[in-house]
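Re-run requested by the PI after the first attempt was lost when the workstation crashed. Everything re-entered from the original request form. Ligand of interest: guanosine-5'-triphosphate.
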Amino acid sequence: MKTMVMIPTYCEAENIERLIGQIFGYASQVDILVVDDSSPDGTGQLIDKLSVENPRIHVLHRKKLRGRGLAGIAGLRYALNWGAEAVVEMDADFSHDPKYLPALLDGLNQADVVLGSRFVKGGADVGRGFVRHAITVFANWYIRLVLKIGIRDCTSGYRVFKREVLETIDVDSLISRGPAIVQEILYSSILSGFRVKEVPIVFIDRQRGNSSFNFKIMFEGFLMIPILRYLAKSEKWGQLR
Ligand SMILES: Nc1nc2c(ncn2[C@@H]2O[C@H](COP(=O)(O)OP(=O)(O)OP(=O)(O)O)[C@@H](O)[C@H]2O)c(=O)[nH]1
Ligand SMILES: [Mg+2]
């Protein structure tokens, strides 16, 4: 299956080269796309150099409005245009261990969307401080309650989609500009009737580089959830987007 691993980056120069090496080690058949938002630490130039050496490394430089959501949309669009039959999304900071790639890709035999999940048997959230862990647990409870979905790890950004899912939900119509894109895509996939499977992962806290997490981003994310629910209930889904 033609597979693209899409990694959004903002200041990940300390991580990205080693990560790419490990991804090819665990999943030699994939192409890798890095979507960089003009990182001031030189991540973009580093990937340019790597992509010249290896044509299976692709890079998309975004110059205007920065954001995890906007970068994700651009990356998924690129992967579809490239002809991907499966698209993996993962973070650059090693929280998403590439060793799980074979299990995640294998999950596509039973589902259309496969999530790397911290909250199913065998999964874990390791090394995060009490506050970050509590925020994640609360966010999952809140998202399940508001969106009425039976997913254990709704905030996991480590997942795989079949091409058909991304075509059906229409990535260009997504409205989230920040990390809430993760929930919007998941919810949209479920509303469209696709099967979701959760595969256990042990999530390790970022060891190098700087976090882009802050409370503004967190509150924007919380606010997006009832908006998504409202759009779905009022059958404006797809029209307002
Ligand atoms: N292109 C792009 N990528 C981003 C942006 N913000 C974050 N990312 C990337 O999205 C992924 C997740 O961001 P993280 O900073 O790890 O967010 P987090 O996991 O909530 O927080 P920490 O792990 O504590 O840093 C990483 O690969 C980031 O480099 C952005 O504005 N643009
Ligand atoms: Mg992270």
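Saved to the shared folder this time. The chain has one domain: 3-233.
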